[in-house]
Protein 1
Amino acid sequence: MNDIFDKIYKDKGPLGKWADQAEGYFVFPKLEGNISNRMKFNGKEVITWSVNDYLGLANHPEVRKVDAEAAKKWGSAYPMGARMMSGHTELHEKLQNELASFVNKEAAYLLNFGYQGILSTIDALVGKNDVIVYDVDAHACIIDGVRLHLGKRFTYKHNDVKSIELNLERATKITEQTGGGILLISEGVFGMRGEQGKLKEIVALKEKYNFRLLVDDAHGFGTLGETGAGAGEEQGVQDQIDVYFATFAKSMASTGAFIAGDKEIMDYMKYNMRSQMFAKSLQMTLVEGALKRLEMIRTMPELKAKLWENVNALQNGLRENGFDIGTTSSCVTPVYLHGSIPEAMALVKDLRENFGIFCSIVVYPVIPKGLILLRLIPTASHTLEDINETLNAFSAIREKLENGTYKKLAKMAMEAAE
Ligand SMILES: Cc1ncc(COP(=O)(O)O)c(C=O)c1O
């Protein structure tokens, strides 16, 4: 008989195997100081491009004040228990009502974390006779939600309307036999490449196919649409999203999440989402903090305006300097370069140590071999000076990548490690 730990001793997994070289620097880095445009990494100031604090609320004095006062008033325990048992309060209800009205839905339900929340949302919406159709580039939380499904599921090519239709056709044939329905899942904004989900085109398919649409709008909430209600509002199809999901982990700069939709559906969800029924309620400091953040999003349009001023300055600047930023249609700003993984590591080290730029790096197997993706998240707290400094740094590192500097550095690093 084998020990289940044997495989762990042998193989640390696709990411874990890099831990010796990467931990503390490329993964699990410690960014220190207040969350803002400039933080500290390894004791040095860096321009921070890797924090999803889109509206700059994380360290806003009014937010910090409300968070501190709420923590003093409630502590971190209140309320104890799951919503259904002993964890329900007036303020939870108030926040739900305000969120529902903000995203133009009849009702909303709070989730204690986005990841578990959406997983259970998917689980609660489908039964074994139903079919799920979802984007192949979906976030891990959607994939894990789909994993719980006992019926058929089909992925469609990323944001490809033809492929969506083809899979809706397949799903329709199956549901005609099983008597089930179809759940289509898209993201409002795909967080890696920044493209908005093709919600308008998906919604148009409702004319021809019978399905319900669940949208994970983690990156769209607060950043897109005239009022900040997200990708559905931006594309004019918010009313056609059957279940709308957003997390507090990005524009709201907090923890928690919610779903919104018709009241009857939300009433069903609150009795059927296992990760919420059997887990502690969102704590009061987070609820009060979220009420404050939502009020600021509603009443301070200048936050979103500043965010977009920065997004446009950064994305236009990168394009004008000849960088490939793909097909982003959101704040998420990817920069695609060509090089090997060791070159990418040398490049990021140079960016952090010598240019004071901290951004996320994505390489194979998340993206195709030979590509390096540097992912920048502009926020309302960045300045034009941050952007100009970054554009100059990017031009410098591109030159070094092209003239082989990082290849040499990577080779030297490898020889030193042997
Ligand atoms: C697209 C998307 N969905 C869901 C989540 C999970 O949300 P949370 O961090 O609240 O668990 C994230 C990450 O925050 C995300 O990027």
Protein 2
Amino acid sequence: MTEAQTTTTAPGTTEHADARPGLNKQSILWVDDISVSFEGFKALTNLTLVLDPGELRCVIGPNGAGKTTMMDVITGKTRPDSGHVFMFGQTVELTERTESEIAVLGIGRKFQRPTVFENLTVFENLELALKAHKGVFKSLVWKLQGEQKSRIESALETIGLTERRDSKSGLLAHGQKQWLEIGMLLVQDPKVLLVDEPVAGMTHREMDKTAELLRSLAGEHTVVVVEHDMDFVRDISGGGQVTVLHQGRVLSEGTMDEVQNDPKVIEVYLGKPEGAEAE
Ligand SMILES: Nc1ncnc2c1ncn2[C@@H]1O[C@H](COP(=O)(O)OP(=O)(O)O)[C@@H](O)[C@H]1O
Ligand SMILES: [Mg+2]
């Protein structure tokens, strides 16, 4: 007898699995053939993206390429017209789930604008994020347990704000607020972190520190960084994969050097002077 077929796939997914046999069952996140349209306008067309556990993936592309829509689909904010999003190989399908279910499954998202509570201290913001995630927000008897406390301490260390733990968040610099918000995701112990344009408005020094922070998160977490700033992408991608989106499709994928030398990319994105309009 040949090897037993032990693969378990959710109903209705067999066709996809068979269509891409190599497509790895160990992927942490698999955006599979997603299409989204808004009143006839195609924001995403057959978008496929496979992320390995611990990978740091940069996603770049001109305005309107579909980057934010992709994150909206992954996090359950937008329902796709067709396609699937799988976590943990193919064991969990996300497109039927609610935003909070997806967050609990381990996908954390950082929006572009920091949303920290300015009147609370750094520590209190982290505590609140942990409580909110645990669903004990309304509980009167909830107290920080040892393990949870050390999770906050470790997040403080990672984001470099240990010394500012008792400062009101409103007093932090812009970059520090962004790091605090990353910390607020970290205490929720996400498997995947989606980060939308983290360095917008940052000083060069803050950008360097952010690059370092995001790189340090990869390995233990899978990190997806959507970013316009090419220097920043070059800085953090290292030899890792960069995905270029254009008009809702993957235009190119490879190392930064590979995509930067891809004629398709040069034509639609990199080669065009800043602010130039396509014909
Ligand atoms: N809710 C929506 N309704 C209509 N059009 C939308 C909506 N969200 C996004 N779009 C359109 O989809 C395209 C992709 O947008 P978006 O994902 O925000 O791109 P990016 O983040 O790469 O700049 C844009 O043309 C945008 O105008
Ligand atoms: Mg966007």
